[in-house]
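Propose amino acids for all 234 sites.
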């Protein structure tokens, strides 16, 4: 797996399509030795459609009611939430595509359009490489790279309060996302998710110490009360 594939979280079965997604048209015109025989523009066209579909799907499933129920807001979110300027920023800051884009020597540093086109081409390449029955793969890659751009449009994460499996105390509860809990209920028992509770636990000695302190405090209170009563009487 290459460094780029590692950051993407996806390993290409067809390395040629990855090479094509990284090949700018200028590299072919210059006969760059690493260039694919086809440039990335057709893959970028596919990737643009995949990106819009993935964002629209994610917003529809997870967006706030005012976003999901309003086609104008849904269209606005889908069309404008990941503009080319943001794609270019993601390409540079998260993927460091300047190290991977195959381009002519005239392009010492990639332009914003080159970054954005390469990002879309990579999305298109993944969508075609993973197969029609593996759409979740491309959805996961896009969510990993882009989901921080549309957090304000999403519903708050609904949680369920569950008792910790690690302690018998009365107050040992943890919050688990509802979607994760419901998904977990469909698993066989041997595969059930165990969510660790990292809050400090009281030992038996600590509990005993607290009981002893409580007894001393009670005895002290009763002693003071007895002295006050005797003072009043005598």
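Proposal:
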């Amino acid at each position: 797996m290459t460094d780029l594939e590692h950051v993407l979280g996806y390993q290409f079965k067809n390395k040629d399509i990855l090479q094509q997604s990284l090949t700018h048209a200028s590299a072919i015109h210059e006969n760059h030795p690493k260039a694919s025989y086809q440039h990335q523009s057709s893959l970028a066209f596919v990737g643009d459609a995949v990106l819009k579909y993935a964002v629209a799907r994610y917003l529809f499933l997870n967006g706030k009611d005012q976003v999901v129920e309003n086609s104008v807001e849904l269209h606005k979110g889908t069309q404008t939430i990941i503009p080319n300027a943001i794609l270019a920023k993601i390409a540079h800051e998260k993927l460091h595509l300047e190290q991977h884009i195959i381009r002519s020597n005239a392009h010492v540093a990639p332009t914003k359009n080159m970054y954005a086109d390469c990002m879309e081409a990579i999305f298109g390449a993944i969508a075609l490489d993973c197969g029609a029955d593996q759409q979740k793969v491309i959805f996961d890659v896009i969510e990993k790279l882009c989901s921080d751009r549309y957090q304000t449009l999403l519903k708050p994460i609904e949680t369920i309060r569950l008792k910790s499996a690690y302690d018998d105390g009365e107050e040992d509860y943890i919050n688990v996302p509802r979607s994760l809990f419901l998904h977990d209920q469909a698993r066989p028992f041997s595969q059930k998710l165990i969510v660790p509770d990292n809050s400090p636990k009281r030992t038996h000695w600590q509990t005993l110490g607290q009981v002893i302190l409580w007894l001393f405090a009670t005895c002290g209170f009763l002693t003071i009360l007895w002295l006050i009563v005797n003072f009043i009487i005598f």
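Strands lie at 159-163, 173-177. The CA atoms of residues 66 and 153 lie 9 Å apart.
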